[in-house]
Amino acid sequence: MSEQSGKAMTIAVIGGTGKEGSGLALRWAHAGYDVMIGSREAERAAAKAAELNAVLGRDAVRGADNVTAAQAADVVVLSVPYQAHRPILESIKAAVQGKILVDVTVPLQPPDIRTVHIPPGQAAVLEAQALLGPDVRVVAAFQNISYTHLSHLDRPVDSDVLIASDDDEAKQEVAKLVEAIPGMRAIDGGPLVNAIAAEALTPVILYLNRRYKAAGVGIRFTGLDA
Predict the structure, then answer these.
(1) Where along the chain do its domains lie?
(2) How many CA atoms lie within 13 A of 9 on its CB side?
(3) Which residues pair with 63 in a beta bridge?
(4) Is 18 helix (H, G, I), strand (E, B) or coil?
(5) Phi, psi torsion values for 121, nearest 5 degrees
(6) Could you tell me if 14 and 35 are in contact, meaning their C-beta atoms sit under 8 angstroms apart?
(7) Could you identify which of 3, 4, 65, 104 might form a hypothetical disulfide with 42, taking C-beta atoms 3.0 to 4.6 angstroms apart as the criterion?
(8) Cα 169–171–175 angle (5° rounding)?
(9) Is the pLDDT of residue 82 over 90?
(10) Which residues contact 124 (CB under 8 A, 6 or more apart)?
(11) Which pLDDT tens digit goes with each residue over 28-52?
């Protein structure tokens, strides 16, 4: 696979044993990317990788502890509960220097996950950038994608994905990851601070799912030529 296709890169999904992380890992492996699952326990990561490989019908996903996975990756995707966000970032900080880190985390506050919570740093992704430092190219994306759609490889994911970052080149690289998943459309959402809106939208979506007895409400922006 060529570098120009974007599919020669290695993606580490930290928190890849969870529903959202494993769903994204499955989709990217299906699209041809080299994917690693990261977990605090390497055995759990290996077990989830084996599970995804069984779905794919080939060995396309590997498992490792979080630090090893982050070290081996070109792009690191963080999909963890907000309560684990800071300690996991601290554990992989050295491993992600100079890389793109895509933060999927939403600052939900169980049990009231359908009410917007603004964290001390205004957004989980802004807290990530502050903790990791300027040499990590932090991008916010995928906060509003329901895991319920990701595990069905035969179905497109009918949703737009807002991408926010202060690094335009990093946004373009993440847009390739978005559009590698059939049905998804990448939307440039502006600077990293705009991720406050994307993160805050997730509890609203969770509320809509319950209020209207829906499974995996998504977002679409009208009036765009993109």
Answers:
(1) 10-211
(2) 20
(3) 37
(4) coil
(5) -90, 15
(6) no
(7) 65
(8) 120
(9) yes
(10) 82, 85, 103, 105, 106, 107, 199
(11) 999 999 999 999 999 999 999 999 9
* 221: number of Cβ within 10 Å: 11
The pLDDT tens digits of the residues spanning 97-155 come to 999 999 999 999 999 999 999 999 999 999 999 999 999 999 999 999 999 899 999 99
Asked if 42 and 35 touch (Cβ cutoff 8 Å), the reply is no
Token representation of residue 27: 């989709």
Rounded to an integer, what distance in angstroms lies between the CA atom of residue 80 and that of residue 183? 24
Structure tokens at 208: 């809509």
- In sequence order, the 6+-apart residues with CB closer than 8 A to the CB of 214 are 208
Strands 100-103 and 137-140: parallel
Distance CA 32, CA 104 (A): 21
Beta bridge partner(s), residue 45 = none
Which stretch of DSSP H or E encloses residue 150? Answer: helix 147-150
Structure token pair of residue 8: 């020669």
Here the tokens at position 222 are: 């009208």
Give domain 10-211's CATH number out of 3.50.50.60, 3.40.50.720, 3.30.450.20, 1.10.8.60: 3.40.50.720
The answer to whether the predicted template modeling score (pTM) of the entire model surpasses 0.90 is yes
What is the crossing angle of helices 124-132 and 195-211, to 10°? 140
Q: Are 121 and 127 in contact (CB under 8 A)?
A: yes
Strands across the sheet containing 137-140: 61-65, 34-39, 10-14, 75-78, 100-103, 137-140, 159-165, 184-188
For 193, counting Cβ atoms within 10 Å of its Cβ (0-12 exposed, 13-18 middle, 19+ buried), the class is middle
For 68, the 3-state DSSP assignment is: helix
